[in-house]
Design brief:
Helices cover about 65% and strands about 5% of the residues. By secondary structure, the chain is mainly α. About 30% of the residues are buried.
Length: about 300
C-alpha cells in the first residue's frame, strides 16, 4: 500500500494461473479443432484428478479436481516456459497437449515429495502409505488454483525445492558420517541428521582423526578430559575432519563448523571447569536422539 497522504493506491499485479492466461490468449484466435481438443483434454484431466485425488461423485469434489487440474497444467507450463509469454503457453498446449503439461507438473510435485522435508528421518518416512499421502498433500498444496484468483504455485514449488535440496544435503552428509563412524557403521534407520553432524563437529576438536556420529556419556567425558588436559587446536581438528569428508558434503560441514565456532555452548564451556553433568545436558541439546544418555 502507498504511504499515507500520497493519495495513491497500491497496484496489485494480476498473476492468474498460466493455463487461464493461455486460454485468455486463445480467445483472440478463431475457434478451431485444436481449441476444442484442448477443452476435451482439460475435462479428461479433471475427471482423472477427481477419481484419484478428490471425489468424482460430488460437485465439490469435481470443482476441487478442476482447480487442481488448472494448477497441475499451470505448474507444468510455468516450468517449461518460465520466461515466455502466454501465447507461447497456448502454442505449447496445442503442440504437446494439456495432458503433457499436467504430467510434467505432477512429475515435479512427485519428485519434490520424494525429497526430505525435515532432517529428522525415520523408517516410517519410507512407508508406501505415508509416501502416497505426502504426495497427495503436496499436490493439493501447490496445485490448487482458483481460475479467478492469483496463484503462486510455481514460486512456492521453487522455494520448497531449494529448501528440500538443502535438507537433502544435510541428510546425505549425516549418512556419510554414520557410515564412517569410528566404531563401525551405524545402521539405525532413524536419523537425526543435525545431531550426527553436531557430534562429528564437536568430537573433531580432539584432533585425533576419529569420526564420531553417535556417542554416550562415557565417551563424552573422555573427550572433555582430553581437551582440558591436552588443550588441542580446535581449528586443526576441524581441518582434519574436513580432509576426510568428500567434496559433496564439505559445504554442510563447513557451515556447521562456522556456526559452532561462534555459538556452540558445549565448545564454549568445554575448556572451563563447568560440571560434566551440565556439559552433557548441553550436548543433548545438539545431539538429540543420536546421543545415548545411558552411562555406557
Amino acid at each position: 500500500m502507498a504511504p499515507a497522504g500520497t493519495g495513491q493506491l497500491a497496484i496489485v499485479e494480476e498473476h492468474l494461473p498460466r493455463l487461464v492466461r493461455a486460454i485468455r490468449a486463445a480467445a483472440a484466435r478463431p475457434v478451431d479443432d485444436e481449441i476444442v481438443i484442448l477443452a476435451d483434454e482439460l475435462a479428461g484431466i479433471t475427471a482423472m484428478v477427481a477419481e484419484k485425488f478428490t471425489n468424482d461423485k460430488t460437485a465439490e469434489g469435481i470443482q476441487r479436481a478442476f482447480f487442481l487440474a488448472i494448477g497441475g497444467v499451470s505448474l507444468g507450463l510455468d516450468h517449461a516456459l518460465e520466461h515466455e509469454g502466454d501465447e507461447a503457453a497456448l502454442d505449447f498446449l496445442i503442440e504437446h497437449g494439456a495432458e503433457h503439461a499436467f504430467q510434467a507438473g505432477f512429475r515435479l510435485v512427485k519428485d519434490l515429495s520424494a525429497l526430505p522435508e525435515d532432517s529428522l528421518v525415520s523408517e516410517y518416512d519410507q512407508d508406501p502409505v505415508y509416501l502416497q499421502r505426502r504426495l497427495k498433500e503436496l499436490f493439493v498444496d501447490l496445485c490448487y488454483a482458483d481460475p479467478g484468483q492469483n496463484w503462486s504455485g510455481h514460486e512456492r514449488y521453487a522455494l520448497q525445492l531449494h529448501e528440500r535440496k538443502g535438507v537433502q544435503a544435510i541428510v546425505r552428509a549425516a549418512a556419510w558420517l554414520r557410515r564412517h563412524h569410528s566404531r563401525g557403521p551405524i545402521l539405525d534407520p532413524d536419523l537425526n541428521a543435525e545431531g550426527v553432524i553436531a557430534l562429528a563437529v564437536i568430537f573433531a576438536v580432539a584432533g585425533d582423526g576419529q569420526i564420531v556420529a553417535r556417542t554416550g556419556q562415557k565417551a563424552f567425558e573422555a573427550l572433555v578430559k582430553s581437551v582440558r588436559a591436552n588443550k588441542p587446536d580446535f581449528e586443526a581438528g576441524w581441518a582434519a575432519l574436513m580432509a576426510q569428508v568428500p567434496a559433496q558434503h564439505q559445504a554442510v560441514l563447513a557451515d556447521r563448523i562456522a556456526n559452532y565456532r561462534e555459538h556452540c555452548t558445549v565448545l564454549q564451556k568445554i575448556r572451563s571447569r563447568t560440571a560434566m553433568k551440565t556439559l552433557f545436558a548441553e550436548l543433548e541439546n545438539y545431539a538429540g536422539s543420536e546421543l545415548d544418555a545411558d552411562y555406557d
